[in-house]
Amino acid sequence: MIRKNGSFNLYLLRHAEAFKNLAKVHGGGDQRLTPTGENQARALGHLLQDLIADDGSLKVIHQPEGRSKSTAQHIGSIAVGQIMEIDDLVGVKLGVAGGLSEEELEKQYPEVAVALADWRNKKGNLNARPHVPGSEHMEEFAERILRGVLSSIELCEPSESLAIVGTTSTLNMMNHLLTNDGDYVRSSYDFIEYPLASFATWRISPERPLQIAPTVQVGEFA
Q: What secondary structure does DSSP assign to 132-177, as a single string?
């Protein structure tokens, strides 16, 4: 179960645009935020500052990848609060696909590239998830992300709001675990599109977690 004495909002945020996104790299790649990404991250900070205006301070937790860390730092510089890194929240390990662009993957591991493309077209249906050599099993991933979520919630005081910045795989698993109150239910795993610099809002309390706002994209800001 995912519980906390007292109640507070939990914001699940996808990182802002990084150069690796432009290069279409599977994990890894150039983790620096683009100029657009820096603007997106600052816009997220201003938005969160407005959202928490009446609820006290903000704690920002990010997974270890550089793009998530940079996004969290931009947010924290505006919506003032503590910034922390949680190792357990690192994205799913992609095995041989990790760090390769789509073009490189097609050349080096064509069967894996075709299988991953087909899986994406099926919206991440786990029954159709291809075997990628060296990749992390979803059960292991779920167990690790649950540890990270519980650790993050434990660090948050009732007077704080909590923002967790991560990548698509981590956000999807967090959403799944929150929906199922900490249980990993393979048969009901749904893939959700989290555009760059988007977020969903949950309420954590002594009761079952409750999603109070669906995914909202901040978009590009000048």
A: -TTBPPHHHHHHHHHHHHHHHHHH--TTEEEEEEE-HHHHHHHHHH
CATH number for domain 8-92+137-217, candidates 2.40.290.10, 3.40.50.1240, 3.40.50.1380, 3.90.660.10: 3.40.50.1240
Is residue 95 within 8 Å of 110, Cβ to Cβ? no
Strand partners, 25: 101
Beta strands 160-166 and 25-26, pairing class: unpaired
**Secondary structure letter of residue 98 according to DSSP:** T
Report the range of poorest mean pLDDT among 21-35, 39-53, 117-131, 179-193.
117-131
CA distance to 18, 93, 142, per residue, from 133 (Å)? 26, 10, 19
What dihedral angle (degrees, nearest 10) is formed by the CA atoms of 51, 17, 84, 53?
-10
Q: pLDDT by residue (tens digit) across 59-112?
A: 999 999 999 999 999 998 887 678 999 999 998 887 666 667 777 777 877 777
Looking at residue 221, its pLDDT comes to 44
DSSP E strand stretches across the chain: 8-14, 25-26, 57-62, 81-85, 100-101, 160-166, 198-204, 210-217
CATH 3.40.50.1240 residue spans of the chain: 8-92+137-217
